[in-house]
Design goal:
alpha/beta, 5-stranded parallel beta sheet, 4-stranded parallel beta sheet, 15 helices, 17 strands, about 20% strand, RNA-binding
Length: about 375
RNA sequence: GGAAGGAUUCCCGAGUGGCUAAAGGGAGCAGACUGUAAAUCUGCCGGCUCCGCCUUCGAUGGUUCGAAUCCAUCUCCUUCCA
């Protein structure tokens, strides 16, 4: 039921395009997956996601387990039906919450105790529990339950987290309902910023990978160059027939750099979160529409962008909405930012298909500056 | 006409003799955000030649070593009684 085909490798850059077949449709890679943690990409309806050509989205095991509860989602007919999204869904395992809720959890080799961010109640997560919940949700791609560490973790901590992630991975697969062919597990490479650990991790997860695997624990506070270094180390050792998913990345520049380094799938909260906070992606850098200089700027966010936001509304109007706390402001910028990344991957796929991604890369990187304020 | 209360930095609003350029909100200005505890959070927010100085708490004058804080007069506002 799951299959990955490499369609073409760019002669100029070595980057590739492919097709990931899932029970809910085909995903063209490289792909950016919008994040819908709570069974919704914040502020958007599925129709909006269709409009910007989103082909797969991500949701979260831990959040949906806490509320409304995976049993309820199952009763509703599964996550796809519950949220009325008929294309593929990938669920994160709760592994990232091991990291992001560090002040509210306790880890042992067996599992993790979390205090609910909603009401403080205690909950125990294990690899088995995570898979059980993801099976109840019915996502296409389930993530292995892993331990993600801080970008500056010492070797001993990274080593321990890696070993724990490996043992948890084994338990995930052992628990998985083998008869359920409509769901697949992606194992996750960890190893923090230690090259030898990264390589070891990749080697150890590959026997588990059936049709795709992830690189986790990056973009967690380390400089971008360090992340790129890690990707460079891993690249020669990837099997070609499986998609590689770089978790939690990213920004436009990180996506372009990632694809150059062999990555096929990305997800990130950045486009949706910064949109709600008033920032828009552009091909030159970030535009903070709250800035006073846009008060009487009646041009669109990006003149040549064909998204609904840019075709119909001015910077001045969106600024007014954001400054007034109006919900439409965040929605319009969310549409723009997601469209920006999805269109970016589309353009890259075309470039790869035409053996000119090397040129595309050079041009993009020369124009783009994450730190530039538009 | 009489009585009472009040006027504080862009707005609201604390503050009743030194620790006050003046709490706290709001607005404004800027920044952060990368498998979402985030429509959140952080910083600035009288002026300057900025480790110090100058101007500010309705106005003017006074008491005091020292006042937004006490006194006098005035101006304006609110409420109540005629």
């Amino acid at each position: 039921m799951f299959k990955y085909e490499v369609i073409k490798t760019c002669k100029q850059s070595g980057a590739r395009i492919g097709k990931l077949y899932t029970p809910h449709g085909i995903v063209d890679t490289p792909v950016f997956m919008p994040v819908g943690t709570n069974a919704t990409v914040k502020s958007l309806a599925p129709r909006d996601l269709d409009d910007i050509n989103a082909s797969i989205i991500l949701s979260n095991t831990y959040h949906l387990y806490l509320r409304p509860g995976h049993d309820l989602v199952k009763k509703a007919g599964g996550l796809h039906k519950f949220m009325n999204w008929n294309k593929p869904i990938l669920t994160d395992s709760g592994g990232f919450q091991v990291f992001s809720l560090s002040k509210m959890r306790k880890i042992t080799d067996d599992g993790v105790t979390f205090s609910s961010y909603i009401d403080g109640s205690k909950h125990y997560f294990t690899p088995e529990r995570s898979i059980e919940i993801q099976e109840a949700l019915g996502s296409d791609i389930m993530m292995a339950f892993d331990e993600c560490t801080e970008g500056n973790a010492d070797f001993k901590t990274a080593r321990k987290a890696l070993d724990r992630t490996m043992s948890w991975l084994d338990r995930c697969y052992k628990y998985k309902n083998k008869t359920a062919e409509n769901q697949i597990i992606f194992p996750i490479v960890q190893g923090n910023m230690y090259k030898d650990l990264r390589l070891e991790s990749l080697e150890r997860i590959l026997p588990y990978a059936e049709c795709g695997f992830s690189i986790g624990g990056l973009s967690v506070g380390e400089p971008k160059e360090v992340m790129y270094e890690m990707l460079d180390i891993l690249k020669p050792h990837y099997p070609s027939g499986q998609p590689r998913y770089l978790m939690g990345v990213g920004s436009p520049d990180c996506i372009v750099e990632g694809i150059m380094r062999g990555i096929d799938m990305f997800d990130c909260v950045l486009p949706t979160r910064i949109a709600r906070n008033g920032t828009a992606f552009t091909k030159y850098g970030n535009l903070n529409v709250r800035n006073a200089k846009y008060k009487e700027d009646f041009t669109p966010i990006e003149e040549d962008c064909d998204c609904y936001c840019c075709r119909n509304f001015s910077r001045a109007y969106i600024r007014h909405l954001i400054m007034s706390g109006e919900i439409l402001g965040g929605k319009l910028l969310t549409l723009h930012n997601l469209h920006f990344l999805i269109k970016l991957t589309e353009n890259i796929r075309n470039a790869i298909n035409e053996d000119r991604f090397g040129d595309f890369y050079k041009e993009f990187i020369s124009n783009y500056d994450w730190n530039k304020k538009i």
